[in-house]
C-alpha cells in the first residue's frame, strides 16, 4: 500500500488498519489478563473510532465489542454470600493503588466509547433492549 501525502499534513496517512476482534481473549483468569483484555478492547475501539470513513456500522461494532468483553470475557466479582467466593480472582489478593488507577482509567475510557456509540445509534427497539439489558447487569 502506498501512503498518501497531503501538502498541508506533515505525516503520511495510512489507508486502513485491520481490526482483529480475535485479539480479545475468550476468558480471563487473573488481574493481569483482565486488564490486558480491557486494554485490548480500548485499543480496538480506538481503531474503530479513528477509521470512520473505512468501517461502516462502527457504533454497532463498538457496542458489541464492549458488551462482549464485560458480559463474557471479564467475570463479575462473586458476592460475599456466594458459596464459591474463594475461587474468585477478584478476592484472592489485594489490588494495589496503581492497578486500581489503571482499572479506573480503562473503565473511564471504555465508558466514553460506549456512550459515544450509544448516542450515535438510531433509536430502535432491539438496540434499546440490548443497551438496557447490558446496563442492568
Describe the protein:
The protein has 137 residues and is mainly α. It has one domain. The chain contains five helices and two strands, in the order E-E-H-H-H-H-H. The chain has helices at 31-50, 58-73, 89-92, 97-120, 125-135; strands at 4-5, 12-13.
Tag the structure with descriptive keywords:
137 residues; mainly alpha; two-stranded antiparallel ribbon; 2 strands; 55% helix; globular
How is the topology of this model organized?
Blueprint: E1 4-5, E2 12-13, H1 31-50, H2 58-73, H3 89-92, H4 97-120, H5 125-135
Q: What is the structure about, briefly put?
A:
The protein is mostly helical and 137 residues long.
**Total number of distinct structural domains:** 1
- Mean pLDDT equals 83
Number of strands: 2
How many angstroms does the end-to-end distance come to? 44 Å
- Major sheet summary line: 2 strands, antiparallel
List segments where confidence is low: pLDDT < 50 over at least 5 consecutive residues: none
Strand content: under 5%
Number of helices: 5
Radius of gyration: 18 Å
Query: For the largest beta sheet, what order do the strands appear in spatially?
Result: 1-2
> Element order, helices and strands?
EEHHHHH
Helix content: 40-55%
Q: SS-based structural class?
A: mainly alpha
- Global morphology: globular
